[in-house]
User: What shape does this take?
Amino acid sequence: MDTLETRELRYFVAVAEELHFGRAAERLGMAQPPLSRAIQQLERRLGVCLLERNRRGVRLTGAGEVLLQEGRAALDATAAAARRTRRAGGADSPGGPRDQLVLAVKAAASHDLLRKLLDAYAAEPGSAEVEVLLCGMCEQEELLRDGRADVALMHTPWNSLAGFDSEALTTEGQVALLPAGHPLAAREALSLADVRDVPDLPLARWPSHGTYAPGPGPEIHNQTQLAQLIALGRTVAVVPDSARSWLWAEHAAVPLTDAPPVVTHIAWPVHSRSVALAGLIRTAARL
Amino acid sequence: MDTLETRELRYFVAVAEELHFGRAAERLGMAQPPLSRAIQQLERRLGVCLLERNRRGVRLTGAGEVLLQEGRAALDATAAAARRTRRAGGADSPGGPRDQLVLAVKAAASHDLLRKLLDAYAAEPGSAEVEVLLCGMCEQEELLRDGRADVALMHTPWNSLAGFDSEALTTEGQVALLPAGHPLAAREALSLADVRDVPDLPLARWPSHGTYAPGPGPEIHNQTQLAQLIALGRTVAVVPDSARSWLWAEHAAVPLTDAPPVVTHIAWPVHSRSVALAGLIRTAARL
DNA sequence: ACGCGGTGATACCCGACGGGTATGACAGGG
DNA sequence: CCCTGTCATACCCGTCGGGTATCACCGCGT
Assistant: This one.
């Protein structure tokens, strides 16, 4: 009577994201009429109007917004349950598959910290196998939530630690990454204001949870692209100190006096009770 | 093919908790054979053995433990989605039902703080209606997770703030609560060691997430019971300073020098995006 | 003004599957 | 030894989820 099925949540999230029954049905691999009916049944069962159907397309009501948010979280949780259970399968029988940990790391970030962590953990007696899952800019949180990863390296202020347990590992400052020939590249230090309004060098824009803030600068998708755009003199970026390890000859890095420090954390889902995970965290904390 | 239905999770959690198909089926309001079949299907779909069936009862495998843990979380998340959506229903239409917040508080704890908070918030312009949900010793976390509450007052070190956003409100010391006539009641201050091994007064035991640690003292379920047992000279307890507001004449409170301080937090689920909630938190932070 | 395209809703049918009842296989205890 | 209690199997049935065909409605073009 009052318990939502994951099927219903999947359907509703698809419709709420597409705002179009036909496209949502296609995405779900089904026909449109049963999808319409399913959403109507869902609305009846909840006793709530979720969608506002104007003859031209669909809009979310307030309750719909809530269900989109909460439904995504619930779907993540069930997906995580399935994945983690599958991975734990057989691990109880002695001689079964070794413990395995999936560690999510932003590609090209914290490279030497990561190497040190992996080396130190591998040297521990009884350590599990660690699979490194290199991901995009802000995906670690999603990967942890839906069970594709067990543990992640995260970087405040870009990642949010909300909803996870975490331990801070290192703190570093930030530098401005400029084309080597640029006048500002000769300075000893810069402030954020200096790099924000350079007329010929618009500040690069990083995605924040899949969307880009508006602005004049180019939209950055990965580190290679950023490096090239800077080398070409098209943009300037604010990056952590450790980025110096991948500087090109055409790059210059100038310390920033007032940029917020970047803290690298190791983070994991609350209530994780795996000995392998505990060992990795202990190793990380000792670095 | 790989997406768990909430029905399957409900069934498995019931079996895993009862460790008995018959009782689980009864609890679920269904017959035992379809339940057996559903669990078998679940195991086949996950490709994992979840239960070890000895002819006498059932035991969880390692994978089963994982699914019990993760499945509970997933069920909480879907229940929360349903509840919060229902509560948000109609709130979007102007003139619809007022915003409502459910605040979970341990019964008899932080009484004056709660009163101040409610008064201050009610005085705010545009404040929502606040329903106070008085709960047992450690239920706030569950209430927040499954959507029965929107926000809670929690007390470290008893409650865990893991998985929630929170803000610290007040810190207080702890006192030993003794029968008025007891020799220790005359002391100016006590240490934890003093109250731990009083031969004639075993330390009362509080439940921690539903279970009691072993020990000689009585198992406490609520504040009234504790007060009476102390007055009867049967036990001694360690409680926050603010408990002084409900002391009886037969009680004596003696400060403890080395007890961990009790911090009262206001906590809420991560990603909450309600203006009413934000207002309540802001009010609390200003107290 | 009229027809056309595109939206979501309705009508109807069918097969899958979730659930019930009856029964079986098997172990432990009086 | 049978009786009790456990979970698994066999079989039946009704519900309901999904597909196809179609409708009702609106905006827009000519």
Remarks:
- The radius of gyration of chain A is 23 Å.
- DSSP finds nine helices and twelve strands in chain A.
- Residues 91-97 of chain A have pLDDT under 50 and may be disordered.
